[in-house]
Specification:
Blueprint (H helix, E strand, L loop, with lengths): L1 E6 L1 E2 L2 E7 L9 E2 L2 E3 L6 H13 L2 E13 L7 E12 L7 E7 L11 H11 L8
Amino acid sequence: MIVVAGILQRDGKFLIGQRMARDRHGLKWEFPGGKVELGETPKQALRRELREELGVDAVIGPEVARYEHTAPGRPPLILLFHKVDSFEGEPEPKTFEQILWELPDSLPHYDFLDGDLDFIRRIARGRVRLLK
């Protein structure tokens, strides 16, 4: 399964969302995005997911990270992280408990999904260059 996540930035901060309490992995933090459906490219899937989750129309930029994540008893996931070059509309937490704009240095202090942790570490170590 391929999962794609969007990296939205504003004033040096990243947009993160907290999952709904009733959802699987409730109240964990993540970057917005979701599963790539049959017949979609990763960029198409991310554009659709950002419209559904945040109500924005996004221009999806380059892939900035990719890796496989495995969890016990579950099939492996291929995680793709794409920079969002621009977006129209103000992000709203349509499918999240809340969304926040957060500085890169503060991201490790949030309870992120296990699959996002490697990307968080890369950001914290300065291995991901996304700022315009």
